[in-house]
Design brief:
Largest sheet: 8 strands, parallel, barrel
Radius of gyration: 17 Å
Strand order of the largest sheet: 1-4-5-6-7-10-11-12
Structural class: alpha/beta
Number of helices: 10
Order of helices and strands: EEEHEHEHEHHEEEHEHEHEHH
Number of domains: 1
């Protein structure tokens, strides 16, 4: 059995790590390179950096940050946020990112997933899917959850897998920011419907939430941000806790 992964997520704007709710009320929480190095030392298995800049200048700053992260980090990292073209993805991979994550752009143009996988290999391509439960159906949403699509979570996940995605990062918008636990029921069903790794996002608030996710085999990895950024959970302590509960994890 593959070891489960703990993955801190850092939102980056103009070269600084920020935190807010759906990108509103953003406040600076640290230097993304320094935070990445610290998380790696604490035992993080991977990192995710999301570019939340709204300007061309901000995206150029993000590209420089990716280069710096690549030079200073000894664990894999994924970059995403606003990637809408082969050129944009290529620039980030050339800068040193291990994987790229596409979300809204994949919904708009599914061929982007296929083309990225064909050029770079599936292992480089992560498709991020945001969804919320509406009338008993998991509806895919884009633009930080503000726009509904006509796509259904499980169907869309299978489609992007068939297009060549190597991994899926699923965020339940109903659970995001609540710190009440991951959407384990949906994650379990999603995990059983695809054959590629699944990363869970949205809802982590305490160590037991990670335990619940992994004990029930709902995902291969757990992504979180606030609980790590604000020191509510230490990654090393979390991994020791999980190990003590017979969860396969790298210490």
């Amino acid at each position: 059995m593959l070891a489960k992964r703990i993955i801190p997520c850092l939102d980056v704007k103009d070269g600084k790590t920020v935190k807010g709710v759906n990108f509103l009320g953003l406040k600076e929480v640290g230097n993304p390179v320094e935070m990445g190095v610290r998380y790696a030392l604490e035992g993080a298995d991977e990192l995710v950096y999301l570019d939340v800049s709204a300007t061309i200048e901000g995206r150029e700053t993000f590209l420089r940050m990716v280069s710096s992260v690549a030079k200073n980090l000894n664990i894999p990292f994924t970059v995403g946020g606003g990637i809408s073209s082969m050129e944009g993805a290529s620039a980030l991979l050339m800068a040193g990112a291990d994987k790229v994550s596409v979300n809204s752009a994949a919904v708009k143009d599914p061929a982007l997933v296929y083309n990225l996988a064909k050029r770079y290999g599936s292992q480089f391509v992560v498709v991020a899917i945001d969804a919320r439960l509406k009338d008993g159906k998991w509806v895919v949403v884009t633009h930080s959850g503000n726009r509904e699509t006509d796509l259904e979570l499980f169907t869309w996940a299978k489609e992007v897998e068939d297009l060549g995605a190597g991994e899926i990062l699923f965020t339940s918008m109903d659970h995001d920011g609540t710190k009440q636990g991951y959407a384990c029921d949906a994650l379990k069903r999603l995990s059983e419907s695809i054959s590629i790794p699944l990363i869970a996002s949205g809802g982590a608030g305490k160590r037991e939430h990670f335990k619940e996710l992994f004990v029930n085999n709902c995902a291969e990895g757990a992504l979180a941000s606030s609980v790590f950024h604000y020191g509510e959970i230490n990654i090393s302590d979390l991994k020791k806790f999980l190990k003590s509960n017979n969860i396969e994890i790298r210490l």
